[in-house]
Every structure is written in C-alpha cells, then in structure tokens.
Design a protein that fits this description.
Chain lengths: 125, 98
C-alpha cells in the first residue's frame, strides 16, 4: 500500500473585484466549481468590491452582460457551503444583507481574516 | 498561522496594497516584488509597519534599485531572489496581491 499520506489542502478563493467590468468574478466562480468537482474543500471569500458580486436584484442582461451570477446557485451541488462576506466592505458601500445566494456568513473583519489565514492555499481574484 | 503577503503592484495605482494591509494579522510578513517596490514610499505601509512591529516587510533589492527606489526606511529588510524560497517555507501559507 502506498505510504503517501493524502492530507487534503483547503482552498480559499478571495474575490476582490466587482462582477461585470472584469472577468475576475466569473473566473473565481469557475475555479471554485472546478475545485468542488474534485471534492477539494473550498471556501469563497468576498471583500472590497467583491461584495458587489453577491448582492441581490442585479440585472446584468440589461447591459448585455452574461449573467454568470446565476451559476452561484450551483455551488451547493459541489458541496461549497462556506461562503464568507466581509461586513466592513458591505457597510463601507452602504449595502444591506440582501444576497442572491443562500447560506452566506457575514463576518467581522477580524473573523474574516482569521478564517482566511486558516486555509492552506489562497487564490485572489 | 503566519501568512506571507506578496505584493506585486503599486499602492498608488490600485487598492491591492490597501486590501493586503487590511487582511494582515500579527506575525504575518509582507514581501514587495516587481512594482510592489514602489510601496517602499507608501504612507499606508509605512504607518502600518510603525504601528504593528510584529509584522515584517521585505523587498527584493534588485527590483527596487531597478526602479530607482533607493534608501527605504529602516523598517524594510532587503532580500535577494534566492531568499524568497526560504521566506515562503517559513510561513504557513501565502497570498499574492496583484
């Protein structure tokens, strides 16, 4: 039997950019789904303008932009339930906790940072 | 868990540095490479390093001198590219801000 110990690395995907002006948000979501399909423990973090990706009542088709936000609903099928949002980023932008995805956790900056630090691999988009 | 924050862009041009500083915790380190060396003069970084003495900041000398970023404040430690590997392995994880 192989002696190699398969310790699973935890992945954090840190979203820092708004949804439509760049492809960073879609690429981050794609990366999360790919990790999820390989059953890699993956968490999504939203900070700064990244929080604009999760607010509700958006209408990307009105600006002829591809509505990748709908794909967020696929996260649960890939067992990606750890979705964290920076509370300070929301309040800085005068945003309420009205999200288009379920089971998100709004965290204080300290808690957000501590959780991020506990992941083995961190990708920033 | 000590994290290494690798900063590759100028804080005068985008908010990556500000976000990086926002996510630091005690015993983390910051490494300035490429255009990140312009941050050797950035007030946000200087202020943080003076306030939080348990956070260390390194910069790649070659990249700084190439950009005429000379004689930075004493809070910065110059390293070479060879030292970067060791720096990565002495931290639990790393994140690149670019």
């Amino acid at each position: 039997m192989s002696d190699i110990q398969h310790n699973t690395k935890t992945v954090a995907i840190l979203n820092t950019q708004a949804p439509f002006s760049s492809s960073a948000g879609k690429e981050a979501l794609d990366a999360a789904l790919i990790f999820g399909s390989f059953e890699q423990p993956t968490s999504l973090f939203f900070i700064g303008d990244g929080v604009f990706q999760v607010i509700g009542d958006q209408n990307p088709t009105s600006i002829e932009s591809k509505d990748y936000l709908k794909t967020f609903s696929a996260l649960e099928f890939y067992d990606i339930d750890n979705i964290y949002i920076c509370e300070q980023s929301l309040s800085e932008r005068n945003l309420t906790a009205n999200f288009h995805i379920d089971n998100v956790q709004v965290l204080s900056k300290q808690a957000f940072n501590e959780l991020l630090h506990q992941h083995n691999v961190i990708y920033r988009f | 868990m000590a994290m290494l924050h690798i900063v590759r862009t100028s804080g005068f041009n985008n908010n990556a540095l500000a976000q990086c500083l926002d996510t630091t915790l005690p015993h983390d380190s910051i490494l300035l490479i490429d255009d990140g060396c312009y941050n050797l003069q950035h007030p946000l970084l200087l202020e943080l390093l003076l306030q939080k003495t348990d956070i260390k900041c390194f910069y790649i000398g070659l990249h700084a001198t190439a950009r005429a970023q000379l004689k930075p404040a004493d809070v910065f430690a110059e390293i070479s590219l060879d030292d970067v590997n060791e720096l990565i392995f002495t931290h639990n994880n790393s994140i690149t801000w670019s």
